[in-house]
Design brief:
With about 350 residues, the protein is α/β, with parallel strands linked by helices. It has a single domain, classed as Metal-dependent hydrolases (TIM Barrel). The relative contact order is 0.16.
């Protein structure tokens, strides 16, 4: 198949949408996977090994992204919560370095971007806009100076926590410690506003979401979260938070991670983590589960506050037919078949995120 933007899309509205605004995916963990499995190599990512009959090592490559209509990628730069202090900073900087080397390795395919205009220029040249997003506020080791240096290196958003609390913010998946943000946590949000960094509220507790929305003077993002009213998982966003997005101008980037989009799978997965032999058969998860979250979010916040954040290479399993980044095309086609117009799909794919980038540069 030709290496054409959106060539995997079958529905005309979806093809038209990515021609208007290619998809900007909010979260991809390939940098971490390359650390774990390939010694931070940047080679071979311009090949679609699946098309060649090989078993792809990763869920992401540059060819499959383009064919799925992706024109912008937030590459996650991440340190696990087990790494604290200077080690967390080092892990994060190594992955920032990997993204910079990736862009340098494929200058005809990739462009390092920070602003909305950078993204538009990248699209005009036929390249994938590459943006950086730091996952987990522990990556700054409690230092606003480190935060400023990450911004100087092009990091465009930071998730205030990952799976555990930081000393200044509560996580969605840890025991409450601060009741949301501490005074220093509020200073972090203010400094991010001043730096033009997006405050990313994925992974944080609902109390932290509300506190950040109270403090921020700029639009926020949820880089990879879905809707708690559809699937009651702590990583998802409650409606009372979603209802604040229009007033803030921010964007919920719906994720595809099965425990977050399907309650039966979430229960099975939690059981498997404790007792793999007694978990029973894996429940089915399909594109319809993701569609339910996208459409619920549209009902609550409106189409101007939606985006997509797949979380590929960040989880082992994805909905049927969505097991790698070509799943983006599966979702866009499914939404088009449900009557989404090209213009509404273009808002979902890229126009909304571009607006936020423009407002925070």
């Amino acid at each position: 198949m030709d290496d054409v933007l959106g060539s995997l899309l079958t529905e005309s509205a979806a093809r038209e949408a990515v021609a208007i605004a290619p998809l900007i995916d909010g979260h991809d963990d390939l940098a971490w996977e390359m650390r774990e499995s390939a010694g931070y190599s940047v080679d071979g990512l311009d090949l679609d090994r699946a098309a060649a009959g090989e078993d792809p090592a990763f869920q992401t490559d540059l060819v499959r992204l383009r064919r799925s209509g992706v024109g912008g990628q937030f590459w996650s730069v991440y340190a696990p919560c087990s790494q604290r202090g200077a080690d967390a900073v080092t892990y994060t900087l190594e992955q920032v370095d990997w993204v910079h080397r990736l862009v340098a390795r494929y200058p005809d395919r990739l462009a390092l971007c920070r602003t909305g205009d950078d993204v538009r220029e990248s699209w005009a040249s036929g390249r994938l806009a590459s943006l950086l997003g730091a996952e987990g506020g522990h990556s700054i080791d409690g230092s606003l100076a480190v935060l400023r240096q990450l911004a100087a290196l092009g990091v465009r958003y930071m998730t205030l926590t990952h799976n555990e609390n930081t000393p200044w913010a509560d996580s969605a998946t840890d025991e409450p410690e601060h009741g949301g943000l501490t005074d220093f946590g509020r200073d972090v949000v203010r400094e991010m506003n001043a730096l033009g960094m997006l405050v990313d509220l994925s992974h944080v507790a609902a109390t932290t979401m509300h506190d950040a929305l109270d403090v921020t003077t700029a639009p926020v993002v949820f880089s990879h979260s879905s809707c708690r009213a559809v699937t009651d998982h702590p990583r998802n966003v409650p409606d009372d938070v979603l209802e604040r997005l229009p007033g803030n101008g921010g964007v919920l980037m719906v994720t595809y991670v099965p425990p977050f989009v399907n309650a039966d799978f979430g229960a099975w997965f939690a059981h498997r983590e404790v007792d793999a032999t007694g978990a029973g058969p894996m429940p089915r998860v399909t594109v319809d589960d993701v569609v339910a979250h996208v459409e619920h979010a549209r009902e609550v916040v409106g189409v101007d506050h939606l985006g997509l954040g797949g979380d590929y290479d960040g989880f082992e399993l994805f909905p049927e037919a969505m097991g790698d980044v070509t799943g983006h095309a599966v979702l866009l086609d499914a939404l088009a078949r449900r009557g989404w117009s090209a213009d509404d799909l273009a808002r979902l794919t890229g126009k909304n995120v571009l607006r936020v980038l423009d407002a925070t540069s």
